[in-house]
């Protein structure tokens, strides 16, 4: 395995959790809901995933448990913001704090234990192609899922009626309500989808990235995912570019640091943020496109007039 | 005038009627928005629903459309009792609705907007063809792939109408449809509605433009304070008698008879240009206008042709590029901010009363402080607020301008639209500004309140101020203005004396007759 190949494999591993969490938040925000609790949902996914995989020995059960953990947190968020009409920003921040604390409590007995690692799925023959093989056809299932989700969400959002309804609810919830759509139900579904994706992302961290449980192991990735959604102007394909660009610059920074070129490490660790922001600002330069893709109702509480 | 009034009701439901609402009551707390309302609509009939703001028209219509549920009462469809649980159920029966504040999605295109209101199994490609068909058949031109955000208000209304027509409605509800249209567009709409009625579709037409109702409608139900107060044949009534029924008293006729004797120029716009603010804005192009002391000048035009941009430029919400473009009472003000312009004697009333003209969550007295903190009233003394004075001013404004409110000093958002409009206008008029600029002074305001606001503007001009009114309501403009200019795509026509300007001429100006034909972009294209 050559050096370049190793670097590319690491980049994929670093980018996948960002992409998974961000794609879920993208769908949530498209329906007009701003859920700042991504970090909290992720870390709950990580601890639930690790716990289930450790207890049962099956990383696949771990994945399911991770999804459930994320969705449980998202459900709380949905009840608060949709049914009880609380402020989305405050509730989202609270969700992050709750997730970080709760996961620490649940995971206390897991600290330092060896986890069950998610194995790579090698597609026969294809994965033996030199260089391209291991990169494209020798990844674990969550990497494939993350890529599939990018295409699936693009298709659903822009080619199907379900997607049209989600976008309409995010653009103008009063109009959607007047036409007879159940705004709250659509948002519940989108919040839960976001929670599932965040949980999946957390599970990826504790099952594939570093197969163990460490407190606060998400380390701010939820916030990066949130920022990526905005900078991608709510378009899944741009989001994938952003996530991979971020992962790539991040890993390259670590690599450069290890080589000891004398570049200050602070600069290197801030580089991914800088590069990603600049790149996404450049590609989102078309103002009309940005206006059309920004969910106009984002963060606004909807209370139907009954 | 009571001879034509008869309140029908109490008979058995009959299949002669398409829709019958009986004893509809809707309570919001102790307030009855609808109180035992009865309404009968026959197929092929254009039925007017009249009433002032807060009379309960919207509540009744929302109940028929299934958006809200009545506290009490029953609906019958073709003689059968029905429960309309939600708008989808209403659409299944054959009820279509064109909303006053459109239920459109700006970020979606025309076809997508229409698809959202249609049954699930619609293919967008087929739909585009159907849209073109229907829109041609009824003379409502629409481009299926156009983005709603790029369309004018008239075009947006066409989307709503086509959306209803595609559902083959048997009852079409129209909420204040002509409020936003040019005279020509309104005429076209009446033709469409008459054609629909001749095909057997019933129309429930909500309006407070009484001459339209007289011209178009076969039957009228009049609401006041949530109750039916009359059921009349509009052809047999005069506009004045209808207004009397709506208001419950004689509407104060506007006294505009006065000598036109303007004084010195108090507001001067001098070659004002401004680039568009964002992709959906309008740029202003070489705008020149003088408003003199003692006159009311009105700017007519279809919504979205630069009215709000012009207002923002004059009020100082967007500061101009050079100081000489705007001259207020002899002072070059193009670079001044809003407060400086106010101190110099100008008053501004923006179009959107809630959120722009007033902060929804603040009380009325606090809203007064927001625009008048730098006045001589001393509402703000070295950074501290004088609440007592603000409350006193609030008392004066709400008394003088008949603002009806539940508490002495309620939150702005708790007022009904018409009452809040009276407050926002009254707040500026109370200062007796030398220059008043007012955008859409009576938008969505009932006849009584509109008359009060218009009279107040005329009185202000009589007392020697310059008044500039931006409005889309031509009746209003002809009622109050001494001179009229028309804005179209960011260009302002000359100002004509209002008695020299015909409706036809105004329509042509609205369509852009005065625009300079070669703009910079055209030159680029031809080069």
Task: Give an overview of the whole structure.
- The complex is a heterodimer of chains A (306) and B (527).
- Chain A is mostly helical and 306 residues long.
- Chain A has one domain (3-293): ABC transporter involved in vitamin B12 uptake, BtuC.
- Chain A contains 13 helices and no strands.
- Chain A has helices spanning 3-30, 38-56, 59-83, 88-106, 132-137, 141-159, 161-171, 173-178, 183-209, 221-231, 236-259, 265-283, 287-293.
- In chain A, helix 6 (141-159) crosses helix 7 (161-171) and helix 10 packs across helix 11.
- Chain A is globular, with a radius of gyration of 19 Å.
- The model of chain A has no long low-confidence stretch (mean pLDDT 90).
- Chain B is α/β, with parallel strands linked by helices.
- In chain B, helix 11 crosses helix 12.
- Chain B has 2 domains: 45-67 and 84-247, P-loop containing nucleotide triphosphate hydrolases (Rossmann fold); 265-526, P-loop containing nucleotide triphosphate hydrolases (Rossmann fold), CATH 3.40.50.
- The termini of chain B are far apart.
- Chain B contains 17 helices and 23 strands.
- In chain B, strands 13, 16, 19, 20, 21, 22 and 23 form a 7-stranded mixed β-sheet that branches. A 6-stranded mixed β-sheet of chain B has the order 6-7-8-3-9-10, sandwiched between helices.
- The A-B interface holds A 161, 164-165, 167-168, 171-172, 174-181, 287-288, 291-296, 305-306 and B 66-69, 86-88, 90-91, 99, 102-108, 112, 115-117, 120, 147, 149, 278-280.
Summarize the structure.
The complex is a heterodimer of chains A (306) and B (527). With 306 residues, chain A is mainly α.
Radius of gyration of chain B: 24 Å
E-strand count of chain A? 0
CATH class of chain A: Mainly Alpha
Tell me, briefly, the overall form of chain A. Answer: globular
CATH class of the largest domain in chain B: Alpha Beta
Q: Radius of gyration of chain A in whole Å, from Cα?
A: 19 Å
């Amino acid at each position: 395995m050559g050096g370049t190949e190793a670097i590319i494999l690491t980049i994929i591993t670093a980018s996948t959790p960002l992409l998974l969490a961000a794609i879920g938040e993208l769908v949530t925000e498209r329906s007009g809901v701003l859920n700042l609790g991504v970090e909290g949902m992720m870390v709950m996914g990580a601890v639930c995933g690790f716990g289930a995989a450790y207890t049962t020995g099956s990383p696949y059960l771990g994945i399911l448990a991770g999804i459930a953990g994320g969705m449980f947190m998202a459900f709380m968020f949905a009840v608060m913001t949709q049914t009880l009409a609380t402020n989305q920003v405050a509730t989202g921040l609270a969700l992050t704090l709750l997730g970080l604390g709760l996961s620490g409590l649940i995971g206390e007995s897991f600290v330092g234990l060896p986890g069950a690692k998610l194995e790579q799925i090698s597609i026969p023959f294809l994965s033996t192609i030199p260089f391209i093989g291991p990169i494209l056809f020798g990844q674990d299932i969550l990497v494939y899922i993350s890529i599939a989700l990018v295409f699936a969400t693009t298709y659903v959002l822009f080619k199907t009626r379900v997607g049209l309804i989600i976008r309409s609810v995010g653009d103008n919830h009063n109009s959607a309500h007047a036409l007879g759509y159940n705004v709250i139900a659509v948002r519940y579904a989108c919040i839960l989808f976001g929670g599932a994706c965040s949980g999946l992302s957390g599970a990826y961290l504790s099952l594939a990235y570093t197969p163990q449980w460490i407190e606060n192991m998400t380390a701010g990735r939820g916030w990066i995912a949130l920022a990526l959604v905005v900078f991608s102007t709510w378009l899944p394909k741009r989001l994938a570019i952003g996530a991979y660009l971020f992962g790539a610059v991040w890993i390259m920074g670590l690599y450069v640091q290890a080589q000891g070129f004398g570049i200050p490490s602070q600069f290197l660790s801030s580089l991914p943020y800088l590069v990603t922001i600049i790149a996404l600002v450049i590609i989102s330069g078309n103002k009309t496109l940005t206006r059309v893709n920004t969910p106009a109702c984002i963060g606004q509480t909807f209370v139907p007039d009954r | 005038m009571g001879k034509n009034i008869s309140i029908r009701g109490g008979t058995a439901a009959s299949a002669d009627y398409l829709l019958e609402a009986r004893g509809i009551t809707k309570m919001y707390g102790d307030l009855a928005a609808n109180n035992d309302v009865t309404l009968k609509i026959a197929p092929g009939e254009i039925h007017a629903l009249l009433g002032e703001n807060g009379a309960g028209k919207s509540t009744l219509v929302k109940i028929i459309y299934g958006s809200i549920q009545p506290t009490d009462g029953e609906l019958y469809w073709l003689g059968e009792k029905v429960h309309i649980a939600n708008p989808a159920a209403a659409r299944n029966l054959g009820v279509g609705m064109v909303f006053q504040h459109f239920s459109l999605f700006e970020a979606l295109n025309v076809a997508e907007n229409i698809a959202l209101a249609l049954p699930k199994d619609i293919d967008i490609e087929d739909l585009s063809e159907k849209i073109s068909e229907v829109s041609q058949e009824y003379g409502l031109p629409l481009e299926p792939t156009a983005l709603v955000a790029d369309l004018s208000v008239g075009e947006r209304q066409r989307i709503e109408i086509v959306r209803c027509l595609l559902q083959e409605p048997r009852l079409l509800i129209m909420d204040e449809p002509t409020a936003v249209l040019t005279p020509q567009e309104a005429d076209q709409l009446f033709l469409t509605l008459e054609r629909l009625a001749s095909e057997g579709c019933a129309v429930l037409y909500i309006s407070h433009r009484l001459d339209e109702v007289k011209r178009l409608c076969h039957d009228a139900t009049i609401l006041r304070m949530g109750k039916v107060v009359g059921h009349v044949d509009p052809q047999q009534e005069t506009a004045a008698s209808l207004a009397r029924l709506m208001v419950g008293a004689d509407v104060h006729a506007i006294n505009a008879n006065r000598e036109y004797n303007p004084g010195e120029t108090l507001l001067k716009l001098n070659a004002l240009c401004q680039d568009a603010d964002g992709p959906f804005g309008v740029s202003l192009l070489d705008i020149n206008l003088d408003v003199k002391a003692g006159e009311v000048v009105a700017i007519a035009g279809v919504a979205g042709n630069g009215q709000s941009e012009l207002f923002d430029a004059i009020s100082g919400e967007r500061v101009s590029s050079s100081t000489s473009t705007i001259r207020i009472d002899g002072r070059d003000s193009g670079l001044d901010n809003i407060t400086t312009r106010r101190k110099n004697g100008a008053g501004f009333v923006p179009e959107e009363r809630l959120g722009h003209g007033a902060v929804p969550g603040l009380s009325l007295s606090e809203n007064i402080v927001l625009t008048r903190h730098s006045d001589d009233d001393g509402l703000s003394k070295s950074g501290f607020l004088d609440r007592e004075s603000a409350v006193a001013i609030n008392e004066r404004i709400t008394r003088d301008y008949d603002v009806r409110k539940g508490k002495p000093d309620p939150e702005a958002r708790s007022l009904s639209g018409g009452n809040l409009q009276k407050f926002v206008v009254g707040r500026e008029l109370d200062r007796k500004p030398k220059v008043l600029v007012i955008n859409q002074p009576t938008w969505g305001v009932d006849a009584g309140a509109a008359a009060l606001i218009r009279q107040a503007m005329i009185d202000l001009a009589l007392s020697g101020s310059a008044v500039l009114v931006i409005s889309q309501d031509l009746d209003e403009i002809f009622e109050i203005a001494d001179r009229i200019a028309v804005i179209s795509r960011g260009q302002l026509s000359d100002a004509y004396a209002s008695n020299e300007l015909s409706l036809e001429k105004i329509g042509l100006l609205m369509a852009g007759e005065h625009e300079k034909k070669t703009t910079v972009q055209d030159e680029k294209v031809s080069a």
